[in-house]
Specification:
Blueprint (H helix, E strand, L loop, with lengths): L6 E6 L4 H16 L3 E5 H5 L8 E2 L1 H7 L2 E6 L1 H10 L7 E5 L9 E2 L3 H9 L3 E15 L2 E8 L2 E5 L7 E7 L2 E8 L1 E5 L7 H4 L11 E7 L9 E4 L4 E7 L4 E4 L3 E4 L5 E16 L4 H9 L6 H4 L2
Parallel strand pairs: 1-2, 1-4, 2-3, 4-5, 5-6
Antiparallel strand pairs: 7-8, 7-18, 9-12, 9-16, 10-11, 10-15, 12-13, 13-14, 15-18, 16-17
Length: about 300
């Protein structure tokens, strides 16, 4: 990202005074460094500052060199899904609680950006999932997910009875509260809370985790990211499917949800010293005792 002038897009979804102030600081810093700043259209409306350049997410995707997203993982998740069909890289600055994806701390954002402008950054690609609902042989709904696609029993009582196939091979029929199909990125989200494994984001695997299965021997499994997973609704009172808990659709008996790796990927830019293991240790409060931490 060094040398020539770049176009940076600033995006936020919450507009407390602290967030607006941080957006202003980033804007001034990058402008002083000789770069052009644009604000995502909704973000621009909440800045209360005349003369700023506003762009839609589609325009950002086609024109910006990078999108800087200020917020929590939920904000980054939603924006990343909308930018998935473009090649614009994403830089996440954490203004939320956890920060698995928005991994630059707020109090380090300007030093981190300064180093990244000088070429000291890590570029990383992550894949998404594409889900299609097939009813009576026709696709009636499609959406993508960055974290996970969750087939669940809905708000009614009782379990959901579903049938799972992988690459045309019958895997199991299970009764449970639902099934989580997760990317490696999403393996530290809902899938983890349901007892699934954590996958390094560079791994090529898709995690399948049952939610409170009736049969305790039904354990999580990781399948290749080239797999096509088909979930068929056998019985349920009011089943549904959600994509990253941000897009929802109702299901019926005999509906089939076809899930596979999406064609597009998302590129993240991290500080040069970023490590997934550091993120796990810090966010999950693992024991930090080591020679490196002690400085021995």
């Amino acid at each position: 990202m060094q040398s020539k002038q770049r176009i940076f897009a600033l995006v936020a979804r919450l507009y407390q005074d602290s967030i607006v102030q941080s957006l202003e600081e980033i804007s001034h810093f990058l402008t002083a460094a000789g770069h052009q700043i644009v604000f995502e259209a909704e973000t621009a409306q909440n800045m209360n500052r005349p003369g700023i350049v506003a762009m839609t997410l589609e325009e950002i995707g086609s024109q910006a060199d990078a999108a800087i997203i200020l917020g929590g993982d939920g904000t980054l998740l939603g924006i990343a899904r909308e930018l998935a069909s473009y090649s614009v890289p994403i830089i996440g600055i954490n203004h939320g609680r956890l920060g698995f994806m928005a991994d630059i701390p707020l109090n380090q954002m300007l030093p981190a950006l300064d180093k990244m402008l000088k070429g000291r950054f890590v570029s990383e690609q992550r894949f998404l999932l594409e889900g299609s609902i097939v009813r009576d042989g026709e696709i009636i709904y499609q959406a993508i997910a960055f974290n996970d696609i969750v087939v669940c029993r809905g708000g009614g009582a009782g379990m959901i009875d579903l049938r799972a196939e992988v690459d045309g091979h019958f895997m199991y029929q299970q009764r449970s509260d639902g099934l989580i199909i997760s990317t490696p990125t999403g393996s530290t989200a809902y899938a983890l809370s349901a007892g699934g494994p954590m996958l390094h984001p560079n791994l090529g695997g898709i995690v399948m985790v049952a939610i409170a299965p009736h049969t305790l021997s039904n354990r999580p499994i990781v399948v290749p990211d080239t797999s096509e997973i088909v979930i068929e609704i056998v019985a349920a009172a009011s089943p549904g499917v959600n994509f990253d808990s941000q897009t929802f659709a109702s299901l019926r008996r005999n509906d089939r949800i076809v899930i596979k790796r999406a064609a597009n990927t998302i590129t993240f830019l991290h500080p040069h010293d970023w490590s997934f293991y550091d993120t796990l240790r810090n966010k999950l409060h693992w024991n930090e005792t080591s020679r490196h931490v002690k400085g021995e």
